[in-house]
Amino acid sequence: MSGIDAQHSDAPEASTRSRATQFLWQQLPYIVALLLAIAGVAYTNVSHQPLTGYWEFLALAIGAVCVVTKWPDTEGRESQIRLVWTQALHWIAVLVTMNIMLVSGVQQMLPTPATGLVLLTLLALGTFLAGVSLLSLQIAFLGLAMGSAVPAISWLKQSILFFLLGAVLLIGLAISFWLRQDQQPSRSSSDIDKQAEG
User: Fold this and answer.
1) Beta-carbon neighbour count of residue 68 at 10 Å?
2) DSSP conformational letter for 186
């Protein structure tokens, strides 16, 4: 009896893990795209060089994710062709806009770290609009997350000194507390005996 009960109790756990694994696999393209976008901005800010090819590749990759994730929901050959063409035109427009920002005349007006943020903003806008046109909550959310990363990155860059000072303060407090605990004399048994006699 107990073996049968154990098998039945393991079944819901296995199905829950299976559903969670399947959900993570479905969300993986969106998570990877967001991480690649943030990594691109971080690298641009550190290296002070715009990654033109990187942003173009990322735009094409997100366009491919849009088509691949909506393909199973699209019925009929005509609808599938329309999906491919509308996404192709959408992402070509995003790529053209990105390349306009990379023209040397425009580049002279923008500092290099700002170029990375502008390209991420354009990519975020393109991703959000693709999500709206495809009625895909995940793609629209990816665009919003990428867009919210822009002010977060610029704020973090401006306040890095504040975070550094806060970390030094916390480390200093932790060390002083630890030293204070270490310096307190441990009460030996002879001290306790003297107090009991007195």
Assistant:
1) 10
2) P
